[in-house]
Structures are given as structure tokens and as C-alpha cells.
Amino acid sequence: MSRRVNAPDGSFAGTVLLAMNLAYFNSLLDKLNVDAEGSIFIIHQDGTMIARKPFRENIVGHKVAGSPTFPRMANDASGSYAPLYTFSRVPGTPFIAVVAPAEDEVLGPWRERSRIVGALTLLSGLSFIAVSWLLALSLRERARAQEELVRLAGTDALTGLPNRRAFDERMDEKWRCGRRAGTPLSILFIDVDYFKPYNDTYGHALGDDALTTVAHSIATAVRRPTDVPAALRRRRVCCAAARYAA
Q: How far apart are CA 231 and CA 246, in angstroms?
């Protein structure tokens, strides 16, 4: 390295020449840790490779000014460029320090974190799907159970026909519809004659069978979907069915 020395009047007074052993730069680079696939080097502003780690004899001491990235390093104070090169000019010197870490060294931790985040995201998504599926099944079973409770609440346990509660609800509905439409409404009550003597003679079990048989006959005779049979039992002595016709 050389520099001109001027006299007080500005005229040429001489030249200062500084010669440095390249081993000095190599010793500086040896103190730095770099991956086997990475590199760190010092370039002179004229494009000469001063030192490099790892050392390459065919590069150190030769000019690399022909590299397409060198003009940017020569003109800018610092910066970076693809793939992973970062450079900075050493203040007060004609040297440019360049660090080129290995891609795996830089991106390895990021890739590992990406895999972990991806796995956690996938696990969270699967967990959400599983919970949603279980919730949907639970809600479906609850709806079925509720429908079954509603059905049982309006069904006579012995005959399987709608009970008095269901009868009253349908009666009110049919009555209001008939009044609104001005159509007639008919109700047919059927009583089982001599049921009490039969029940007392043959017992409650056969009496229940008789009521079930009568209810089945009435339900089978109903043809229209608007007709509704119902069992109106009191103290196990009668069986009746209501039939609505609009």
C-alpha cells in the first residue's frame, strides 16, 4: 500500500510505502469460525484476493475483478447479495471484508423451526378436526335423544299410540286449522265393552294384551296421514282412539 506525501506548498514530497505480510491476514481469518461449506475472505479494492478461509491457492493473490458482484462491493460501503454474501469496507483501508456462510448453516435452524411449526400446526389442525367431529357427534346424539324423549313423552307406553298429551296438542291444532279454513272436524271415540270383567277374570297381563290388540287394529285401520289415532286410557279399564278428519 502506498500514499503520496505532499509538501506544504502542495508539491510532491515523496511516497509512503507500507508492505504487509499476507500471513497477518491469514492469522486473522484463522481466529474466525466458518462452516466447511462457507467462506470468509478479504479483497483489495483493485479486485485482488488478499486472504481467504478456507485457503485456496488458485484464488488467493489473484484478481477477482471479473466477478459480476465485485463492482457492487467496490462502489458500496457495505451490503449483501445472493445467495448469502455480506460485505463491508474496512474504514481507512482499501480492503473489503466478505462473509459467505454456508446455506445449511444459516437456514438449518430456520428449517428446523419450520418443521416444528409445521408439525405443531398440522397437529393443531387435526386436533381441531377431531374435536369438531366429536362435538358434531355429541350434538347429533343429543338431538336424537331429545327427539326420542319428545316422542316418548307423547306416546302411550302400553299401546304405542299417541297419549292424552299428544291428543290434546293435536286436537288444539286441528281445531284452530278447522276454524281458520272453515272445514268440519270429526272425532271418533271407541270404547272396549266388557273390558273390566275380562280384566278381572283373566288378569291384568291378558288385559294389557287385549288393549294392545285393539290399539293395533285401530292404528292399522287409519289410512289417511291426516287421521291420528290416540289411546285415552283411565285406570286400565278402557281404550279409546281419536280420529281427526278435515
A: 20
